[in-house]
Design a protein that fits this description.
The protein has two helices and two strands, in the order H-E-E-H. By secondary structure, the chain is mainly alpha-helical. It has a two-stranded antiparallel sheet.
Length: 98
């Protein structure tokens, strides 16, 4: 009968072998995929890939005018509607988007 230490060592060795095999297989599969993509002229869109450089950055609204619904991210020059609320003494925290 094997001891706990022996079984643990065997398990670690098997795991190491599995990771090595996975890495080798991964490289082979990646090579096949690249070849197929080139052969069939697939586009990134057809493969369901989203390229970070292509997507437009979304604006994140931080403040909202409760009357007009206009928003401001809090970056750059403050819009006139925001300035008018501040001049009226409105707490900017009340204009935060929930």
């Amino acid at each position: 009968m094997s001891s706990y230490a022996e079984l643990k060592a065997q398990a670690e060795e098997l795991l190491r072998q599995a990771e090595t095999l996975r890495a080798e297989t991964r490289l082979s599969v990646l090579s096949q995929v690249k070849e197929s993509v080139a052969d069939w002229n697939f586009s990134a869109n057809e493969l369901g890939l989203k390229l970070g450089l292509v997507e437009k950055r979304k604006s994140v609204a931080k403040f909202k005018d409760p009357v007009s619904g206009k928003t401001w991210s809090g970056r750059g020059r403050a819009p006139d509607w925001f300035k008018s609320y501040l001049s009226e003494g409105t707490d900017p925290n009340k204009l935060l988007v929930a």
